[in-house]
């Protein structure tokens, strides 16, 4: 399709934005649509306006009168037909693809993907080449990905191109890859409609970019671990055993990163019977020589995991469900899988002699976008690797607050906690010396000088206080309480 035609389509749908759709639907219908229920939305879009017609066509997947569809697209009507966005059925028009408004604080985009299955309780198994649209996973990865200005970025496993759109806002060149040809086709269409220049390539993992390096790699790979049976949904499953797709990305990433480059993965991993999950991931990461911060956000038991992905495939109430469910659990038992973990893997090619590797579980709430926390982590790990921490002046982080607790009427608190309100919102209980150090850290005196002064006030040996609290200073810096 020639560029002017796509440009005409872009002009026709100008104003078809997330905020505009929300404004028409209202909160109740918006929330209902998130539950795959369209009736409140149909009631809210009965006025026949251009915006209501587009919402009915794409979000609600309802048939609309041909005349209404033609009026909504205007001069771009033939383009919409030619691109396969809509089709005619007598005097009615229906969507063949989902043209979905998407955006962030500064950008309004449109994403082209396959239609949402399961609206209004209709369960229909998905085609193996199904291209998923905007999901909780894609939104999570967008909030996780750091946003420095870079020369080259890679969206590995692009799907419909959501991450590539974000990367294009701060990268000179963006390469988007996917093993699914239908996904690369729809990503090209997404890019064209948005007027974004992407280099879209087909192939598995790093094969399409062999020998190339990037400053930033962002990926939400097909990480679902499932029995090797039937047609696999390409957007969520691979032919690799278990969680090997994630291991391959982690272990091969260094070969495709420039010095100082980042690789961020929204991933899942196996909890193998008798093997701590932290040790499994460390065995992938440590040989890479890269800094790493792994955060497990959720541990899911196997029945819940099987139910979730069988429902995702539209098989929850399909014939043979009980037998299929049982096969999943039997296969997990054969593979010695006891649970599944979900979370974030952030790698940075810092070039240290001793890489900083941090692997932990954090299931509590976080402040979004959490990407700022990982960007700050890079600076903190650099600081931890430079000189004597006690010979440097620190100040309290801007997002740190203090909480105290104790018996009613007591002159002094029994518990003092430092709480960060940003990032992962960590909390640290402080003893008297740590509380004094943190409260006095304003960037003027070094940590060692402050510890000496506190030791003198408490009539303790200054050298011993330094030796005892140097690890605490390191932890306070690592967690962002001191910067």
Task: Walk me through this protein's architecture.
There is one protein chain. The protein is α/β, with parallel strands linked by helices and 483 residues long. The chain is built from 17 helices and 18 strands. A hairpin with a 2-residue loop joins strand 2 (86-89) and strand 3. The chain is globular, with a radius of gyration of 26 Å. The model has no long low-confidence stretch (mean pLDDT 94).
Average pLDDT confidence is 94
Tell me the Rg in angstroms.
26 Å
Strand content: 15-25%
How would you describe the shape? globular
Number of helices: 17
Distance between the termini: 53 Å
Structural class: alpha/beta
Biggest sheet architecture: 8 strands, mixed
In order across it, which strands form the biggest sheet?
A: 8-7-6-9-10-12-11-13
Low confidence ranges: none
Number of beta-strand segments: 18
Roughly how much helix do the residues carry, as a percent range? 25-40%
How do you describe this structure in short?
The chain has 483 residues and is an alpha/beta fold. The chain has helices at 3-12, 18-34, 39-44, 50-59, 66-73, 77-82, 136-144, 162-167, 181-194, 244-252, 277-285, 302-312, 321-334, 371-384, 432-440, 447-457, 462-478; strands at residues 64-65, 86-89, 92-95, 98-103, 108-113, 150-156, 171-178, 199-202, 214-219, 257-272, 291-300, 337-348, 357-361, 393-395, 400-405, 415-420, 427-430, 442-446. The chain has an eight-stranded mixed β-sheet with strand order 8-7-6-9-10-12-11-13, with helices on both faces.
């Amino acid at each position: 399709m020639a560029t002017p035609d796509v440009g005409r389509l872009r002009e026709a749908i100008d104003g078809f934005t997330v905020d505009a759709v929300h404004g028409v639907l209202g909160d109740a219908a918006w929330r209902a649509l998130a539950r795959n229920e369209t009736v409140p939305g149909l009631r809210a879009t009965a006025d026949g306006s251009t915006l209501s017609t587009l919402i009915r066509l794409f979000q609600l997947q309802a048939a609309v009168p041909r005349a209404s569809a033609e009026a909504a697209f205007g001069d771009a009507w033939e383009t919409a037909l030619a691109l396969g966005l809509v089709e005619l059925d007598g005097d009615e028009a229906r969507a063949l693809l989902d043209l979905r408004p998407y955006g962030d604080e500064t950008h309004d985009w449109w994403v082209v993907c396959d239609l949402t299955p399961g609206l209004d309780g209709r369960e229909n198994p998905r085609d193996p080449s199904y291209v998923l649209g905007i999901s909780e996973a894609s939104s999570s990865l967008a909030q996780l990905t750091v946003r420095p200005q870079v020369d080259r970025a890679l969206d590995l496993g692009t799907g419909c191109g959501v991450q590539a759109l974000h990367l294009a806002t701060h990268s000179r060149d963006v390469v988007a890859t996917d093993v699914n040809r239908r996904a690369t086709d729809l990503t090209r269409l997404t890019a064209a409609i948005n007027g974004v220049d992407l280099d879209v390539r087909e192939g598995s993992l790093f094969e399409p970019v062999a020998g190339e390096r990037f400053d930033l790699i962002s990926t939400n790979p097909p990480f679902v671990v499932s029995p090797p049976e039937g047609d696999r949904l390409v957007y969520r499953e691979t032919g690799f055993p278990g969680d090997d797709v994630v291991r391959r990305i982690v272990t091969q990433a260094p070969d495709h990163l420039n010095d100082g480059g980042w690789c961020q993965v929204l991933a899942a991993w196996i909890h193998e019977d008798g093997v701590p999950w932290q040790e499994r991931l460390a065995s992938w990461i440590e040989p890479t020589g890269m800094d790493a911060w792994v955060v497990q956000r959720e541990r899911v038991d196997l029945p819940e995991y099987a139910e979730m992905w069988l429902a995702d495939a539209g098989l929850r109430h399909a014939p043979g469900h009980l037998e299929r469910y049982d096969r999943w659990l039997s296969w997990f038992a054969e593979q010695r899988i006891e649970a599944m973990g979900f979370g974030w893997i952030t790698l940075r090619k810092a070039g240290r002699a001793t890489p900083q590797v941090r692997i932990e579980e954090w299931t509590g709430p976080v402040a979004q976008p959490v990407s700022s926390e990982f960007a700050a982590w890079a600076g903190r790990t650099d600081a931890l690797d430079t000189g004597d921490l006690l010979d440097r002046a620190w100040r309290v982080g801007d997002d740190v607050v203090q909480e105290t607790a104790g018996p009613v009427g007591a002159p002094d608190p029994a518990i003092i906690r430092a709480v960060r309100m940003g990032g992962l919102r960590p909390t640290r209980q402080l003893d008297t010396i740590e509380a004094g150090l943190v409260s006095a850290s304003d960037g003027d005196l070094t940590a060692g000088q402050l510890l000496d002064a506190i030791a003198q006030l408490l009539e303790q040996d200054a050298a011993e206080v330094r030796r005892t609290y140097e690890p605490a200073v390191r932890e306070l810096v690592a967690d962002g309480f001191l910067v």
